[in-house]
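Show me any protein, keeping tokens residue-aligned.
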Amino acid sequence: MKVYIKNKFWSLGGGSSVLNENKEPVFLVKGRVFSITRVKYVCDMQGNRLFKIRNKWFNWFIHKAFIYDNNKTKIATVKDKWFNVKQEYFILGYKDEIKVEGKFFSLGCQILRNGEVIGSIRRKIAFINDAFELEANEEDIPFLIALVIAIDNITDKKHK
């Protein structure tokens, strides 16, 4: 399944639209208006929260974001490395070992679970706002959308 995640050009909280291949909305990403930690929620089309994503408030050299489930339980920590030459992101605390390899702000990267490729992220060329194509199995898509949002939050925090 492919979905397209596009940050909204004008959104007070930093929301995103998530569309399927037919350009139909499949998930909502809502941001909190005044949030130092860039809190965002991945919701289904009925508005039910599936995941909460937020950055670590203060980062020295290693940037982190946290993913919570709808019960407010932290299920994963997304982090980069101090010298992140290969642009790798590590997902800690999740039930499986997940790693994102490749340049996130280049044209593409792969998502690995326990060493096997389970999906890919491709950056779409957009002049004003970020847009991504995520391809993975349908059952993995909601968590992987949260993962893309978390990595995007980390890279935005590092560059701004």
In short: The chain has a mean pLDDT of 83. The chain has one domain: 2-159. The longest strand covers residues 116-124.
